[in-house]
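Let us work through a complete example step by step.
Step 1: write down the sequence.
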Amino acid sequence: MDTSIEVKLLMTFATVLGKKVSLYVTDPKDNLTKEDIKAVMDLILAKNIFAPNGDDLKTAVEAKVVQTETTDYDLVVA
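Step 2: predict the structure and record it as tokens.
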């Protein structure tokens, strides 16, 4: 039995059509601050580099760090 923990920074934006879109970064730095995250989200909006389904991002909605613990089981029967 193996257990692993995955950490992601999940950033949610609203598009110009009002839809929510999430982007995530795996293994973010441990010492990220609210200001760091806000600055990155503002940069993503300013550079306008993502257009999911052709729909430009308009505003930052929320951000959170998500930890997922996964346990793998070996089910092979000898």
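Step 3: interpret the result. The radius of gyration is 17 Å.
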